[in-house]
Specification:
Helix content: 40-55%
Strand order of the largest sheet: 1-2-3
Shape: elongated
Number of helices: 4
Distance between the termini: 89 Å
Number of strands: 3
Length: about 180
Amino acid sequence: MKIVPLFLLAASASAFSPVTFTKYRTGSSALNLFGSGDKKDGGGAPGGGAGGMLQQVAMLKKAQELASKKAAIDSELKKIDFVGSSADEKVKCIVNYITSSNPQEPQPEFQAKSFEFDDEFFESSSPDAIAEASKEAYELGTQEALKAAEEKFNDLKQDVAEMMSFTTGGAPPPPAEGE
């Protein structure tokens, strides 16, 4: 009977002893942070550079640069008043660009800052006609804002494409049409 308590004591004591690994594992899960990967197996950096951690630092700096460019473009777009007019130009709508606050869905929003109505049209038209012309002016204002945003973000889009090709080791993409 005295053997059983000693056995339990020995088992519990080994549970707290440190575990040592005698063999260093290598393989596809090795990080190769400083470019020590085997070049023939594709573990090294693209193009034979230092790779690993140095490449990640360069990518982080580029990502921070892109984020600051995007913030500057968003700030610039917020300051612009985009104007949309109904087909007969009896209603004008001034629209503001609002940056999305939800990073999961980065779609911009728009706010109608003001509407300008032709006095004669406003007094002689039905509420439905005024609403339809107002809606048309607002939609054209948002289209103007989207077009301006697309033009401003084209350079940023090209920078992102260059960064993505850098991560995969490919050549930079060809310039966009019209450049």
